[in-house]
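Check the record.
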Amino acid sequence: MKRYLEALGLPLADATLLAGICDGQLLTGAVAAGGDAKRVANLILSHGRRIANERALPLGRLNPQPPRLAELAG
């Protein structure tokens, strides 16, 4: 969560939610692939959680790929 706040500049509420639902590699991998941290976080927190809930799966089981998230965020 500290990395989300300090290095990526995410708001506390987003950092808290992200720390609870996915590992750090998903977001940081998408940022490393060129995605904007805030836009990628929004994708994960809105669409990613919605799809995971619809499929009754944890977000990690959807197997989102960081480069694809970066592309979608663009």
Remarks:
- Residues 52 and 59 are 5 Å apart (CA to CA).
- The chain has a mean pLDDT of 90.
